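Quick board copy: two proteins, each given as sequence then tokens.
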Amino acid sequence: MATAGRMSVDGGEMMRYAEYSPKPDARSDADIDRRLGGTLIAVGLGVAAAGFAGRYAFQLWKPLGQILSETVRKMPSSAFSPYYKGGFEQKMSKREASLILGISPVTTKAKVRDAHRRVMVLNHPDKGGSPYLAAKINEAKDLFDKENRR
């Protein structure tokens, strides 16, 4: 029976509002606190482990970084260059001629002609190229032409 905003519950107890009635499967506050405490401890241990791992990694990185930078400094800069580093030989060899023209030492006459034309367009003295380089390019072509005639 309800009287003046109060409700009767099975045990004869009077309660003001229905939402304050006890729930049979509700967890106790101690159980909630225990689970929350366990979660907080696990999160704290995880953060501490990440901190120690980061500190160790930074300490380890210093010597490795120094070794890596020393190794890079010791490497020759020409090791990563696609261009041939070095001067010309006194007498041109077939190897040097193939390096100048950018072709294989054993190639056809048509490929020699195309390679010579391509390199001369880029290095012609009338277009701002070096007369010395143009002479070396022509010498390389002449060497291949002489080899093909034989």
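And the next:
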Amino acid sequence: MTNEPIKEILGTPKLPDSVPPEKSNNNDCVVTTIPLVSECQLTAATGGAELSCYRCTIPFGVVILIAGTVVTAVAYIFNSHGSIISVFGLVLLSSGLVLLASSAVCWKIRQHKKKAKRRESQTALVANQRTLFG
């Protein structure tokens, strides 16, 4: 853990050292400050939802995939190849597949990070036990 005080971590983020001034028409100098949001504040505001991308895209992907399948099936039943409805159905179908594939990739990446973190934690624990009992 870092040696920084908790108040500094959870408090307001530090402002940049220099902010470029904005010029107006009557030669007044106006300084605009942009509030910076830290990762801790983002996590507190969203309840940690920014790390659950794959959980959110799975339901949308399934619904869009089903809608794309239905629209494409209806378009091809009526032999309207190349029409707007068949193109729309294929776009929905491919969008659903892309969403499901991206959620699977996000899930795999997150699982890999969890395994690496667990392995690192176990290595540190074993090294700590060796120094205590060795």
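Board note added afterward: Helices lie at 6-10, 39-46, 53-77, 84-133.
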